[in-house]
Amino acid sequence: MLYNFNMKSTIQFYISHTTEGYTAAGVEAGIVTQADSLDELMVNLREAVDLHFDGEEVGNFGYARTPAILVNYELTDVVHA
Q: Is residue 69 classed exposed, middle or buried when 0-12, 13-18 and 19+ CB atoms within 10 A define those classes?
């Protein structure tokens, strides 16, 4: 099997926080999950990715066989010392 270098090696997610909890939404992948804490969100995110690709060939979605999960979380209230 030849490796396709055009395949994406990471699935990127943007994390947002509201008074209702945390949400992780795929930047390019149609995967969304939520939780009450960041720790719980990471567990849910791994499960959501597994379920999204369950029974599918990951390469059909443009991803390498075992893509990494990359999360971005923007801190909104930064304190300057």
A: middle
**Which residues does 44 contact at the CB level (< 8 Å), separation at least 6?**
24, 33, 34, 35
pTM of the model: 0.79
Residue 18: its pLDDT value, please? 85
Alpha carbons 26 and 12: distance in angstroms, whole number: 6
Where does the pLDDT of residue 3 fall: very low under 50, low under 70, confident under 90, or very high at 90 and above? low
Cα 54 from Cα 36, distance rounded (Å): 25
CB-CB contact of 23 with 34 (8 Å) = yes
Q: How far is CA 75 from the centre of its chain?
A: 18
- Bridge partners of 15, per DSSP, are 24, 73
